Every structure is written in structure tokens, then in C-alpha cells.
Amino acid sequence: MVKHRARVCVGFNDDGSPVVQQVSGRTEIELSDSIVRAILNSARRGEFVSGEAMEPLPVK
Q1: How many CA atoms lie within 13 A of 49 on its CB side?
Q2: Model confidence over 13-57: pLDDT tens digits?
Q3: Residue 53: how many CB atoms within 10 A of its CB?
């Protein structure tokens, strides 16, 4: 049974809205692993691996 859940922003649409993926795990450690896996498989990987941040979204 899944006890821990989180939502992870894995990217942004062209209009700037976030793309969210729900991840889960039976323990906190499995949840942490799922979060890392989701980020590394996402379009935001470069932010965390190379240290280069995406361009900030325009302020409305």
C-alpha cells in the first residue's frame, strides 16, 4: 500500500503553466527515489545536473 505521495513539477508548457507528475512510495526513502527519478527523466534535468537554471517566467 502506498503511504507517501508528492507532486513534482517536471516541466512547463509553452504558456508557462507547470507540468506536474504525481509520484509515490511505500516509505519516505522510496518517495525520495521516485522524486529524483521523475526529475531526471524530465525536461528539467539540466537544472539539476549541470546547474544551469531555466530562464525565469515573465511576471504578469
Answers
A1: 10
A2: 889 888 899 999 999 999 999 998 888 888 777 777 666 655 555
A3: 10
Phi, psi of 9, deg, nearest 5 = -80, 110
Cite the DSSP H helix spans in the chain. 28-40, 45-49
Q: How many CB atoms lie within 10 A of CB 19?
A: 13
Domain-wise residue ranges, the chain:
4-47
Coil vs helix vs strand at 49: helix
How far is the C-alpha of 45 from the C-alpha of 50, rounded, in Å?
Answer: 8
pTM (2 d.p.): 0.69
Three-state DSSP class for residue 52: coil
DSSP label of 24: E
Q: What is the Cα 39 distance to its own chain's centre? A: 4
